[in-house]
Design a protein that fits this description.
By secondary structure, this protein is of the alpha/beta class. The chain has a single domain, classed as Glycosidases (TIM Barrel), CATH 3.20.20.80. Helix content is 48%, strand content 16%. It is built from twelve helices and eight strands.
Length: 288
């Protein structure tokens, strides 16, 4: 093998390795967890060992501890994505139509950006499930998304939006989520493809790989496999409908990660409401 050929192969290896590392691998943290400095240090240490590169962190009330702990992320080269909950449990007609509420929430967005957020993620950006089904619902939600996008675009901050997994297969007219419509104004879509949220529950509990893979590929099919935005899937660490042994949880997590990779998504965020990620760390450090 010539020297030039060897250098070429090494260059290709470097390029593909960097491309693989570039995919987002993230975990979600509540503000309470993030402000617990001792526990945060533990999470940072183990996340780095597992090659996790992003923390999605709630911002509800700006605080000195929150600001100070952001420096710990920066020191460890972990990306900070600020998660802003728009309408807890979904919005009423009044809340969704209220620019004053959008402005109040934007104060949190602005604070996160000022503190170095790499991206903004809007969650619960939807109507509650009590609304009458209508395509106007998604248009109302998109109006809010466009408003936030206009605020962020001049600052070069990408906008992510969380959507229910069911929207992988088309518009949800009750809650007002439509991925094709939202794609006009977002930089990334974050489908919550938790197998525990799909019916029939028993079927999806047993087939986490197929559930996640089908959901993500169905989103891509909405765009004829030419995605106009990034796609970061939310996965779950256990299924609350069924008891699972620890080995079963390991396999459950692994199956979802493999499905995200097979669907050629741009990465994933792991969701644990109590921010316990020991099983995820174990899986990532032992995956083949």
């Amino acid at each position: 093998m010539s020297k030039n050929h060897l250098l070429f192969l090494l260059l290709l290896f470097f390029i593909f390795t960097k491309a693989a590392d570039a995919n987002v691998k993230g975990i979600y943290l509540t503000q309470y967890t993030f402000e617990n400095t001792a526990f945060l240090s533990y999470l940072i240490k183990h996340a780095k060992a597992a090659k996790i590169n992003t923390f999605v962190i709630d911002l509800e009330t700006p605080s000195k501890r929150y600001r100070d702990n952001l420096q710990r992320l920066d020191d460890n080269h972990i990306n900070y994505v600020a998660r802003i909950v728009m309408f807890p449990d979904g919005g009423t007609r009044y809340a969704v139509k209220s620019p004053e509420l959008w402005q109040r929430k934007y104060k949190l967005v602005k604070q996160a950006v000022d503190w170095g957020a790499k991206e903004i993620q809007l969650d619960y950006i939807r109507y509650n499930t009590k609304q009458k089904p209508s395509s106007e619902n998604a248009k109302d939600i998109h109006t809010i998304i466009k408003w936030y996008k206009s605020k962020l675009s001049g600052q070069g901050i990408p906008l992510q939006v969380d959507v229910f997994g069911i929207t992988s297969f088309g518009e949800s007219k009750y809650i007002g989520q439509n991925i094709k419509l939202f794609s006009q104004s977002v930089d990334a879509i974050c489908p919550m493809v938790y197998p525990s949220h799909y019916v029939p529950f028993a079927e999806h509990y047993k087939t986490p790989y197929q559930t996640v893979y089908k959901s993500l590929t169905s989103i891509k099919q909405q765009f004829n496999n030419n995605m106009p935005m990034k796609m970061y899937a939310y996965i779950e660490l256990s299924n609350y409908h069924y008891r699972m042994t620890q080995p079963q949880k390991f396999e459950y997590i692994k199956a979802q990660i493999k499905a995200v990779e097979a669907a050629n998504a741009d990465g994933w965020y792991a969701w644990s409401p109590h921010n316990r990620y020991e099983n995820l760390f174990h899986v990532l450090q032992n995956m083949q």
